[in-house]
Specification:
This protein is an alpha/beta fold. It contains 13 helices and twelve strands.
Length: 374
Amino acid sequence: MPPDRPRRLAILTEGQFGFHHGKTAMGVIRYGTDPVAAVLDSTLAGRNVREWLPDRDIPILAALGDALALPEPPTVLLIGIAPTGGRLPVSWRATILEAIGAGLDLHSGLHTFLGDDPELAAAARAAEVEIVDYRRPPARMETSSGRRHRPGSRVILTVGTDCAIGKMSVALELRRAAVASGASTSFVPTGQTGIMIDGWGVAVDRVIADFLQGTTEWLVEEGERRGDWVLVEGQGSLDHPAYSSVTLGLIHGATPHAMVLVHRVGLEEHDFDHLPECSFPIAPLPPFIALHEQVAGLVAPSRVVAVALNTRSLESEDDARAEIARVAALTGLPCDDPVRFGAEALWARIAPAVEALPWVVENDARTPGLEFAR
């Protein structure tokens, strides 16, 4: 895209707009800086994104042609879904080729690299547009070096009881609250949507397993250059049968001083919708919190200092606050829904809790396995 050309997005979600499968669309709309001209989803045509996000006035249109007819048409087509396996829906090819032919750049966070598709790549060359695959791994491949944090850094990793429940959103909301409090703070994107929002990072679920921890180390190192408080976006869940490996790699690569556990209220089983016959229950919170601390302690001690709830399933604010109070009593930890109610109150309790941790007081003088009984 020419540098003087404004970037306006049309987000393709055909049949999948929403907080789960359409989490890429939702994240970019809620936290991104590029204006969104329209969402493309014929199943919801005529409606508006403000039904889901009240402060966003974005039309949902049936087809790309409708978006191109807007007074300020899009310049980029962004693939707005994060499906299981990250594959491109076959039925979307026609819209993508139409967008390229109309001169739109193509942005994708799928595991399927659209820039490697011969037909799409040839069309992009002919139209002189760019295909950006946000999940493409970096050329840099390094194993873990056991790097210690920069003195004065405070690293916090969001972890969760399942996938697609808000670990990125919680990290971004905590950053917003931390910055508002005057703290020098950075966000480390580890997934495609976070990269789209913040403009840097690595989608760590595409990194070769041997290099996952090493990649996380240098991501955190860059985060430390950008702020004293480093909020690392979590991925997966430690007990998820499909996605536990990326969670473990982040815990051992980031060696966070502390963790914030994210949990979606009402969720009883792991996201395994591509195998509906499989049933894997969500772990109870207190032992799952202890498990995270135990697993982290294999490499360097860390503590879960707060629980961030996703209370979207509770329509009443009173019900949401009652559940927050219940979980706080159950876990003995500060608890809130930072997306629904703002993160200021939660951050005000997280920051001093982190500062009081023994390994922070001792300037990160952490010994591997310090808190794990071998």
